[in-house]
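Hi U.,

Before I forget, here's the chain from the pilot set. I'm dumping it here mostly so it's searchable later in email.
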Amino acid sequence: MTQQITVNVKTLHGQRKTHSFQVSIFDKIDKICDKLREVEPEDMKAYSQPRLVYPVGKIRILNLEDSIEKVELKANCTLVLMGLTSFVWDPNRMDRCLKVSLH
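Structure:
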């Protein structure tokens, strides 16, 4: 039984690159996000809640705490990075007519 597999991750930000990573089948899915943070630190900072989607058969959003073995990822599969990005007001781009109220 192979304990290391290659997993591809397609990003939808920046240049929309596809990254390939060697991971252990016993690693958690979050390990893939950690590897993405190493290769794209600035782009990954924008994701407050990264999600990895497995678009094979029934589309699944993977639980980051599950192991690769548990979710039965196949070698050379491709995941898609999605998720919530954080929002920050940019005072240089804010229209002067825009008013923000806490009420």
